[in-house]
Amino acid sequence: LPADYRPTGQLLSDRIILVTGAGDGIGRSAALSFAQYGATVVLLGRTLHKLESVYDEIEAGGGPQPAIYPLNFEGAAEKDYRDMCDTLDREFGRLDGILHNAGELGDRMPLRDYAADTWSRLMQVNATAPFMLTQALIPLLERSESASLIFTGSSVGRQGRAYWGAYAASKAAQENLMETLADELENTRIRCNSINPGATRTAMRAAAYPAEDPTTLLSPEQIMPLYLYLMGDDSKEITGRRFNAQ
Ligand code: NDP
Fold first, then answer.
1. Which of the four, 17, 21, 79, 106, has the lowest number of CB atoms within 10 Å?
2. Residue 171 lies in a domain
3. CA 232 from centroid of its chain's CA atoms
4. Count of domains in the chain?
5. Which family is it part of (predicted)?
6. Is 8 part of any domain?
7. 74 lines ligand 1 (CB under 6 A)
8. Are 231 and 212 in contact (CB under 8 A)?
9. Residue 92 resides in a domain
10. Per-residue pLDDT of the chain (246 residues; tens, 9 = 90+)
11. Whose Cα sits closest to atom 39 in ligand 1?
């Protein structure tokens, strides 16, 4: 990210951008920022009232009317993703970006005690869902002049660490998926990159580090410049790369 990067107000105007986990934390902040820079945002998440409150906030701020798409990745199957593609096709006819942000922390414990069903759930939500969602939506992304996909990694996905279990493995998988996809789509108008947000003041961070003073951390708003940079055309030539927001 260029130091002192300042997006222009029109950065995302007329773009249709899907944000997963848009109801809370970093995803909420990204949805609000993308809308502020002109995007029509599709708010995907599992808790309807949180999505509705983000929706209201975008409307109150004068942003383009967003859309709400409730979906729980835990139980979602191929048909759900196909239905989503049909709905977005009917509503918008194309898609210009996806922020793969939804994620679950799971248990923090040694692998010898880690429950297999928690492992499966984490892999489903953090790695399989981004794959299935992207696969289903490629036809809509292909209709964009310039599409950007952002995946979300973590420092424990880049180098495993004690007690991070399936979360670490699933984040490694998500960033590797990004690279495979970027390579396969190299000569298309669809590009893919990933962001490791770094320690950020959210509910997930507080669950992982209960003893930490949250006021020592950056807020989601403070890490938005990288999200805007990668979602918009200022980074048009960049694909297949892993970024750190901090
Ligand atoms: P939050 O827990 O605050 O938000 C996560 C969002 O994902 C929530 O909106 C949540 O929905 C949604 N979500 C979780 N599970 C599902 C599911 N099964 N189906 C659909 N949506 C789901 O986390 P953060 O904002 O902190 O994290 C955002 C991303 O950044 C995650 O991928 C995380 O792993 C990553 N990250 C965060 C760091 C940090 O310090 N905060 C550091 C490194 C990486 P609901 O609101 O209903 O719970």
1. 79
2. yes
3. 15
4. 1
5. Belongs to the short-chain dehydrogenases/reductases (SDR) family.
6. no
7. yes
8. no
9. yes
10. 888 899 999 999 999 999 999 999 999 999 999 999 999 999 999 999 999 999 999 999 999 999 999 999 999 999 999 999 999 999 999 999 999 999 999 999 999 999 999 999 999 999 999 999 999 999 999 999 999 999 999 999 999 999 999 999 999 999 999 999 999 999 999 999 999 999 999 999 999 999 999 999 999 999 999 999 999 999 999 999 999 999
11. 200
